[in-house]
Specification:
Helices cover about 30% and strands about 20% of the residues. The protein is of the alpha/beta class and about 325 residues long. The strands form two sheets. It has an eight-stranded mixed beta sheet, with helices on both faces. It has a four-stranded antiparallel beta sheet with strand order 2-1-4-5. Helix 3 packs across helix 4, helix 4 packs across helix 5 and helix 5 packs parallel to helix 6. The chain is globular, with a radius of gyration of 21 Å. The N and C termini lie far apart (about 45 Å). About 35% of the residues are buried.
Length: about 325
Amino acid sequence: MSEILTPPPLPLLRVEGLCQYFKTPDGRTVHAVESLTFDIKRGSTVGLVGESGSGKTTAGRAILRLLEPTSGKVFFDNTDVLALPPKAMKRYRQKMQIIFQDPFSSLNPRMKVAQIIAEALNTCGFPTGEARKKRIEALLIQVGLQPEHADRYPHEFSGGQRQRIGIARAIAVEPDFIVADESVSALDVSVQAQVLNLLGELQESLGLTLLFIAHDLSVVEYLCDEVIVMYLGRVMERGPCREVYSRPRHPYTQALLSAAPIPDPTKKKQRIVLKGDIPSPISPPSGCVFRTRCPSATDACARNIPQEQQVNDEHWVSCVRLHELNHQG
């Protein structure tokens, strides 16, 4: 009797060929995100990393349709949200939320905390009165604040507390998916650890799926199951954190990891220093966009746009010279 194979579950989020372009006043085109493709399993946390200007935040906002993408598809729970009309999209916004980078400017300074969270509850028709008050108090306790904080204004809180308010607002409508956009980068290191632990606890207790945007590789390694490395709007490498961190295949990933500090002063590693700055997205380099800073670039890298290649299970790399460099290594 033959064994019946069960197909793998569909990812909660699948992004296919997502592009986000902007027009400058003089008519030129900014290539902010180019052909972005990846998926996120339900209940997992995926880190999106890269230098400033690599397109991480733009990608996160385009996925949520806070920006209308130029082209591509975003499947959420097997539904292409980019094809939804406004009324249908409003229902999906309850399932897809965001935690913003700046814990101060993302909160209305003229509104008390209860009003800020109530705005989110209004969008999904949550009951008013005593039930809403109890819901807000429960949310504040859930993120490590006190019920009496509901009657205070944002300026009365520290940066870490304000970010907790932002997290409470994001989970208020019981979403399935959250984009955390550099949500700890503006905080002190000790406070970062507290907020990261909170996100991990909420992800587990609420069954959340997270896209965690960051530039700190150690933070991503601590919190995330998988990592996506972006450069100038394109994916350079993606895969399980343990696999990518232990054996990075793309020269850009190798350079990023070589720059990350090691807490053990007795350990030394060879630093890979990239020359120059990230090119302008208005006129990206031909072929591989990383070639102008890549220590291993050849003429072939200028002629060919690298395609993703699978190197191990769920580990993918976009590099023209991938097999050649791995053979040399």
